[in-house]
Amino acid sequence: QLQFVESGGGLAQPGGSLRLSCAASGFTLDYYAIGWFRQAPGKEREGVSCINNSDGGTYYTDSVKGRFTISRDDADNTVYLQMNSLKPEDTGAYYCAAVLMDQTICGPLYDFWGQGTQVIVSS
User: Fold this and answer.
1) Which positions ≥6 away from 55 have C-beta within 8 Å?
2) 115 burial class (0-12, 13-18, 19+ CB within 10 angstroms)?
3) pLDDT per residue over 23-38, tens digit each?
4) How far apart are CA 67 and CA 83, in angstroms?
5) What angle do CA 15, 17, 22 make, to 5 degrees?
6) pLDDT at position 36, please?
7) Is 45 helix (H, G, I), strand (E, B) or coil?
């Protein structure tokens, strides 16, 4: 059975940090571009950060540049999102997703999704 299992979400104070993990099972991530997307209450889903499968090229949406870092460990079949200097506007459901192609942008072609993990940034 193919699936992503996300973890690491929770409650953080503004300025704090969280590290999200996305572990794949049933398939290998080697040939997939991987992305983290989020959906805040009442807002559309947006691509937060994505990483390709060729040279590790990355994309970050402007609001998280310099604060978030995406990484992948293909040996462990896991993708991470390190989130530092968290802000209340980072609150939302975070999803990892995959697409069987080499791309860096968080585009509309991502077609395999995890169940999501909730991040709440509040004092």
Assistant:
1) none
2) exposed
3) 999 888 889 999 999 9
4) 6
5) 150
6) 97
7) coil
Strand, coil or helix: 11: strand
For the record, the structure tokens of 5 come out as 């299992």
Virtual CA dihedral for 106, 111, 115, 116, nearest 10 degrees?
10
| Residue positions counted in the chain | 123
Mean pLDDT, the chain, as a whole number?
94
Contacts of the segment 87-91: beta carbons below 8 A, 24+ positions apart = 87/14, 87/121, 88/14, 88/121, 88/122, 89/40, 89/63, 89/121, 90/38, 90/64, 90/119, 90/121, 91/40, 91/41, 91/119, 91/120, 91/121, 91/122
Backbone angles phi, psi at 25, to 5 degrees: -135, 150
Comparing CA positions, the residue from 44, 68, 51, 66 lying closest to residue 121 is 68
> Tell me, what DSSP letter sits at residue 108?
T
Q: Which residues of the chain have pLDDT under 70?
A: none
